[in-house]
Fold each of these.
Amino acid sequence: MAIRTKFTEVFGVEAPIAQGGMQWVGRAELVAAVANAGGLGFITALTQPTPADLAREIDKTRDLTDKPFGVNLTILPSINPPPYDEYRQVIVDSGVKIVETAGSNPAPHLPMFHDNGIKVLHKCTSVRHAVKAQSLGVDGISIDGFECAGHPGEDDVPGLVLIPAAARQIEIPMIASGGFGDARGLVAALALGADGINMGTRFMCTVESCIHQNVKEAIVAGDERGTELIFRPLRNTARVASNTVSREVVEILDRGGEFADVKDLVAGVRGRRVFDDGDLEAGIWTVGTVQGLIHDIPTCGELIARIVGEAEELIAGRLAGMVSAAPVSA
Ligand SMILES: Cc1cc2nc3c(=O)[nH]c(=O)nc-3n(C[C@H](O)[C@H](O)[C@H](O)COP(=O)(O)O)c2cc1C
């Protein structure tokens, strides 16, 4: 058996499961492991300090898999923006055929990607942005609900409503993101009208993810309440792990503080120390509410096989068993 959807067909993968871009986490070993397991992994372009490093990371991934994989290009407003055009050029020159765009309107990047035969999966957090991206001609949508790790947007609409609301207007392949970690989530996403799922936090907590073991164990130990929403008053909300640093950021901004007042607390170098050294209180680190559903640290192969296998059983067994041709007797 296998689960075939518009997403697996258009993006040429076996399983309807993507591993979205993750700053500091989306590297060759993880992406290749997801690809080898039949999913669609994305290297995170901006984790690589320079475009030349991205080219090397793509080569490294190719050495580890001959299956399709993609590159995530996250375009966020920034005082000193990275050289997006150069990263984009590296993606095109590398021959990678799938890109995940996120963070803002993908329009400026689409012509170059499409002219070079690259399919674009655009990740967004609202129905209106999904509809806009579809009208611009992207090849797929990844719709990220309020549950998600990272940037959930400002509308606070969870997947249970966001996914079917988007499905009503989206005709191209659409995967559901935010809060997915197991077969029940995949089956629910399919039932809600999506063609698959995207997972971040769940893939962080796998053998092949390069982050410190302490972080993976913290995710296993954590529950669904263990996150904070920082930058809410600045309307640039991010869901991150609840720790002394994130709680202090929330407090300062709630008291009327400005970005300058929390700049040092949220510095990327501090967050990076969490992933590299395993010091969970060193800084801000991204994680989603789905950590409440994560209880182990499997390989990506085990994880994807388990999710697909259990989803098939759930659909063909438990759910099919609930459908009765005969009327229920009084
Ligand atoms: C550690 C981490 C870093 C992330 N960094 C990015 C990023 O750089 N760009 C991006 O588009 N999404 C990023 N995300 C979001 C994921 O791609 C994905 O949309 C999200 O994790 C889905 O929610 P989930 O964690 O509940 O599965 C990140 C997520 C995590 C956990």
Note: Residues 20-23, 25, 44, 72, 74, 102, 123, 144, 147-150, 177-180, 198-202, 204, 286-288, 290 surround flavin mononucleotide (CB under 6 Å).
Amino acid sequence: MKQVSFTQLMTYVRCPEHFLFRYVLGMKRPPKKIMKHGFALHETFAYHFDQKKQDSKGLKPSEAKEFFAEVFQSALEDYETEMEQGKSLLTKEYLAKEKETDVAELLVLGLKGIDVYFRQLNPKIRPDLVEEAFTFPGGKGIEVIGRIDLTDKHNVIHELKTTRHTPPKQDVQTDPQVSIYQMAFENIKKRPPAGISKDYLVLSKREPKIVQFAVSRPRFDKKTMLRNIAAIMEAVRHNVFYCLHPAESWICSKEWCPYYKAHQELKKLGLQKFIEKHSR
Ligand code: SF4
């Protein structure tokens, strides 16, 4: 059976070209400080809820902050090594933007964010599944694998996101990520979840805050999702990788996309020659 991870599927949904670079050609994604920061926060909350599941208390805010600072520090050490290895892929604009990112400011924002989370959201969540591995049949000989961050004792799935800006009110119902979580939950618990909540920790400079978007169930049912998964796998098999962002989009900018140079080279060489060159 062919396995595909939840992360791979979501990468294809967001940018098929990114999927080509990362998963087909194995070009390592260069790091971003902000992603190391998000990773450290994610690890902190995962550790806290894992402890809370066992002793119903978890970490104290001061312990969580200490843990976060340590993980962030060690992630930044990895960042330096990864940056050194991936430098040749990057534009000078990307490197300049990374240089501008202030690590001390990120640290302070993370610490403030932990305070807000522990004050506002933590008391309401009694954890059930924490970083639970899942697998479910994705149809046509495909197995989907991944992890659910967190579910609570009321059978609500929580997906924690960190962001710098207040997210627009999204239609969580149409988010494919939410549909996959629902299928994963059903596979583990043999029943549908009571709800799905996207919990945003908004780390704005003025005052970090929590923004939640919740739904009882996603709009796309299992059949539609299985069809979509099969379509993605079929597209990958036939080398369908395209840029779906509008021209001049900030997503495809020199400052933001770590694959911008590869993107330009692909445009110049064409898909076939590009794949031949980078498969060697
Ligand atoms: S340049 Fe645009 S299309 Fe290419 S990998 Fe980056 S985001 Fe995707």
Note: Residues 69 and 108 are 10 Å apart (CA to CA).
